[in-house]
Amino acid sequence: MRPIASALTAIAAAALLAGCASSPTAQGDRSVTITRTTYGIPHVTAQNPESLGYGVAYAYAQDNVCMTADQLVTARGERSATFGPKTIGLLGRRYIPNQQIDLFTAAHMDDAALERAWGKISPEAQALARGYVAGYNRFLADNAATLPEACRGKPWVKPMTMAEYRRMAEVVAVQAGIAALADGMLGAQPPNPARPRHRRSPPRKP
């Protein structure tokens, strides 16, 4: 299992590409301002990494809350129970049946190992992630009644936990690796001993 430090950067970078509407948010010792350009690109102003992660998550949720909620269903390994086992879902960069996604999640994720890896990353990266989780959850609390129709009032839209954040980061980290081979890995079969093997005949001597 790969360390998740690089995935933290990937999630934050992706979140900064969102766009639409501007709003300031603050809670406790987190203080952040989100402003948007004419084209809706968010600019997050914060005094520390945790506040930055908080603002990034809030801005990203403004534009992509349903997508993040869907990704959390994947991280929890609950796609089959939520959307049906044969319905197609997204794992990394590929679309495969939800049943296979859940099986991959169950086989690949090791929460204890992810937590150990988490303890080895920088304090700044840890603060970014804590802020990200809090920012997403704050957005849900502020906007539960006005979410987009695709996820408004759905029971699978729940607050994010730190363990789920680590799982999402792991999916990002392996999306071009083992996650891209998930269906092949799950469908692999051992050799059939009853099936005769074809042996090449030795070359004839002239």
Architecture overview:
The chain is of the alpha+beta class and about 210 residues long. It has a single domain, classed as Orthogonal Bundle (Penicillin Amidohydrolase, domain 1), CATH 1.10.439. It has helices spanning about 5-15, 50-75, 80-85, 100-110, 110-120, 125-145, 160-175, 180-185, and strands at about 25, 30-35, 40-45, 90, 95. A three-stranded antiparallel sheet has the order 1-2-3, covered by helices on one side. It has a two-stranded antiparallel ribbon with strand order 4-5. A hairpin with a 5-residue loop joins strand 2 (about 30-35) and strand 3. The longest helix has 28 residues, at about 50-75. The radius of gyration is 21 Å and the shape is elongated. Mean pLDDT is about 85; it is low at about 1-25.
Q: Classify the helix fraction into a percent range.
A: 40-55%
> What CATH architecture do you see?
Orthogonal Bundle
Using only C-alpha atoms, the radius of gyration works out to 21 Å
Intertermini distance: 55 Å
Number of strands: 5
CATH topology: Penicillin Amidohydrolase, domain 1
- Assembly type of the shown chains? single chain
Q: Tell me the number of structural domains.
A: 1
Q: What form results from the Cα inertia axes?
A: elongated
* Integer average pLDDT: 83
| Biggest sheet layout | 3 strands, antiparallel
Decide which structural class fits the backbone. alpha+beta
Which sequence of strands runs across the widest sheet? 1-2-3
Order of helices and strands: HEEEHHEEHHHHH
**CATH superfamily (homologous) name:** Penicillin Amidohydrolase, domain 1
Please indicate the percent range of residues in DSSP E strands (runs of 2 or more).
5-15%
The CATH class is Mainly Alpha
The unreliable regions are 1-26
